[in-house]
Predict the structure.
Amino acid sequence: PGGVPPAKAPRIRSKNLISVIFCEATAIYGVIMAIILTNKIKEPEDATDYLAQGWDYPGYYYAGYGMFSAGLSVGLTNVASGVSVGIAGSSCAIADAQDASLFVKILIVEIFASALGIFGIIVGIIQSNACNFPIAALS
């Protein structure tokens, strides 16, 4: 009476940790992109409160919005990847509890769901390559 009912399929406990690993990989993509974007920021040579005349303000805007779009691209694809890995992982756990032969078949779907994050970080790296902050005034 009372308590936690025993698991009907205890063999699925370790197998379904794979979904958690895929979600952790998605989180690491965001950390990688944060490191890349942080290293892109450069301090001007003559750092003052206001920049003197002759600075490339459109270059600053271009670099800033480029970094924003790179971060947004990676962030949104990581959200989509995390949601799809979660849905596929849940389906994988339920299907494996019913029939153990379905595990590998659904795991392939989960791998494709995790690949969304890889595509996002590739796009983010390509976008961030164009972000170069000016460090000196135009001559």
